[in-house]
């Protein structure tokens, strides 16, 4: 069984940035093969990885509404299209969900994503799911078992409060979370005492563990602006060493 890593948090906190850095970590540590799933309708994980996307699950579903080639069942055709949408890279593959069927409707796209993950899961050691903002959609992806839930917050009181609420939502949604972590992104150096106090209170009240804080980084900003892949960031750079230390804390003592 693969280890499922889901990222959650309110919009704009840096979930996709964290997912790209996590993918760099897994490939650098040879914790592969991995599958990265961009489950946000506003997909942009591929941009941080400098990967072109030619097919999405949303587009496949629309194709399946039409005629099926002669001699193929609908399931056979879907299987073929899913493999065509799977982007194969060194050490990992990427799958993009894409746009929903209509305004506010994600049900069918989520169903196809769940089916895809069921079909592909056994091929991978880790599956990273970069989610849209919030938590409710996780219950629609058949992700009842999540090995690592990484809740990403920005360095604001509202961000920390939202992270705590997201962590608390896992219980009514009946999600089985083995390990639940808070990552605070783009923090100033040093961290203001008032912010640290809110972080400490949130992890206690929501039964999370603080994985660490990712500093505000001009290097990450420049990498994104240049369009270069996060996978090309030097492993001896300060920001990558800081991020890798956070992921070492999460995974090193909890390997299956």
UniProtKB/TrEMBL annotation:
The keyword Zinc does not apply. Gene3D superfamilies: P-loop containing nucleotide triphosphate hydrolases (3.40.50.300). Pfam families: CbiA. Signal peptide: none annotated. GO terms for biological process: negative regulation of cell division. It comes from the Bacteria. One of its GO terms (molecular function) is ATP binding. Keywords: ATP-binding, Nucleotide-binding. Residues 4-227 form the CobQ/CobB/MinD/ParA nucleotide binding domain. GO terms for cellular component: cytoplasmic side of plasma membrane; cytosol. InterPro entries: CobQ/CobB/MinD/ParA_Nub-bd_dom, CooC, P-loop_NTPase, ParA/MinD_ATPase. This is CO dehydrogenase maturation factor. It comes from Candidatus Electronema aureum. The lineage of its organism: Bacteria, Pseudomonadati, Thermodesulfobacteriota, Desulfobulbia, Desulfobulbales.
